[in-house]
Input
Amino acid sequence: MRVLLIPIGSHGDVHPFIGLGRALQDRGHDVVLVTNPHFAAMVEAAGLAFAPLGTEAKFHEAVENPDVWHPVKGPRLIMGYMAGATAELHQRLDSLIDPGRTVMVAPFTAFAARNLEDAGLASLVTVDLQPAGFRSAIAPPSLPFFRLVRRLPIPARHWFYRFLDAKVIDPLLAPAINADRATLGLPPIRRIMEWWHSPHHILALFPDWFAPPPPDWPPHLTLAGFPLFDEAAHAPVDPIADAFLTAGSPPIIFTAGSANQHAAQFFAASADACRRLNRRGMLLARLADDRQIPANLPEDVKHFHYIPFSRILPHAAAIVHHGGIGTTAQALKAGIPQVVTPLAHDQP
Output
């Protein structure tokens, strides 16, 4: 069976799909991971075939936009990017699908994959990395613009979802999705949020104890647990980081997310907290430049670009982070205290 894995987003979005791909490949499947070229080396180092989608420049354009981390503008911006990539993704998948023996595995933002499933060209498994991807009137997600909704009676919550579809989601996404559907001879759709999950297969990559499914989540949902892939098997060991970990008391780890390039205030506050508490600290910023990390760090606070969490969290005192699902899962596995400072998207 050919399996096309189609992660869209940052390292935190790609890591789970690599872990899934390695497991599928070990079971004898022909696995191809389709994503931005920014992740090509990481995918190939994990032993998976890679197919490019978009350009490295497009990835940096997205992560360098400060609005990506705004609690309201950010989700709209990302959805707009995804809708705009629908035609390109359709073309890429067309070149990879082997009719009759291909399964696509993708987040709900891979709209072209959902259209191709409707056209009967390949099967689709929709993957949700976090509970916020599911619509529920019984248990609405804890997102900033849902705070009022959670205070409403359940019938009013249904009305809110209809309003959200008509005034926000459909106007933003339907034009690109329906233009792609027209090329497949499919009728246009509305109520995008009720359509974007596969009607046949949904895989949630978190356990039920983390988010017990309410009765109005899709019945064809499988909760598979946290994948916990973090490059530890093939990322080189950083001897400087190892030496720092063993040079004193367990440090506090600070991260604002692998793609965040606008966290100068967060890292300044982190360094200041270590100074005030007289604690050692590690600032992790994968795409950081000199403007994001304070120029004069305390002696016991160091900046590192990336270290797999499974290597360092068991030796850490605590972690302060943005609320990404992968970071949360790794901290839970390590059994250390965590303080979450969410910004946008699923993080709250």
In short: Residues 90 and 98 are 14 Å apart (CA to CA). The chain has a mean pLDDT of 93.
